[in-house]
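User: For my dataset I need records formatted as: sequence, then structure tokens, nothing else. Please produce one.
Assistant:
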Amino acid sequence: MNTFGDPTIWLPFVFAALMGVSILIYVVLDGFDLGVGVLFPFADEAEKDKMIASIGPFWDANETWLVLAVGLLLVAFPSAHGAILTALYLPVAIMLIGLILRGVAFEFRAKAPAPHKQLWNNLFFTGSLMTSLSQGFMLGMYVMGLTWTWSHVGFALLTAVFLTVGYSFIGATWVIHKTAGVLQTKAVDWAKGGIWGLVLGIGAISMATPFVSSRIFDKWFNWPEALYLAPLPIASALLIVWLWSMLRKMPFAEDRYSWLPFFAATLLWVMAFGGMAYSFYPYVVPEQITIYEAASAPESLFIILIGTCIVLPTILGYTILAYTIFRGKATELRYD
């Protein structure tokens, strides 16, 4: 039977892939600007201004990918959207409060009188920390199957810390790329510390995931299924060694290849996300609802796909344009 031509098969798969790509892009792009906010307490006043300038043209648009991912989940997999949001209502609310705090603080810190600027700097850090921790908590609960037990909550709290440190790591690699001098040197030190949080986070999730279900365990350790996953941990280990080697040698002469740590960090996130996608497919709610069970009617999905084919290239084109126009080192962020 040829399932490729069956819209009940290929349409849910296409939307799951689109949603996954949107989440991955969000995690990388908003991950680095959240990481920049988490690193605020380690910088002085002038360095904070430069760090804000490095994300100024991008941070708001980066969050568009989160809106797209949640929107695709809602319209393409409504029952899964209900199950996930119901289980994660509290951390989602905390994340939204954090995003609001970030947005308000970002604008007000640039316009507030000098005596009040520290308040908005603190709120920008607080909003970044709340958002990062809540996303890490949601990740941990998702891996554990969205069931609230003491052990699952403990694991989710652990992933909350690790994801936050991971965000600070990719944020540090972004600052390495966008700045120079003393701040860049500081960012190299931040990245050297942050990389271990990311490694521990990936390790913790990797150790827990096979024991979520016997199905995932078989995918990881049974022959020949294990062959499909094997390249990911090998490539990830090589990337970590490469990253550590680069960071020990930075800054490079004449600031060449300052983008390489951010590029390598992005590849590492892609590898980790690929491993999760392989492990949990075809479930959109772990071990409860598959993408095929949760999918909307094929007729609805086809209409939504037409709209997605218009919206997605627009968002992607705008993102590429923004990063192209504002490439190079960060300059002063001005509102006059």
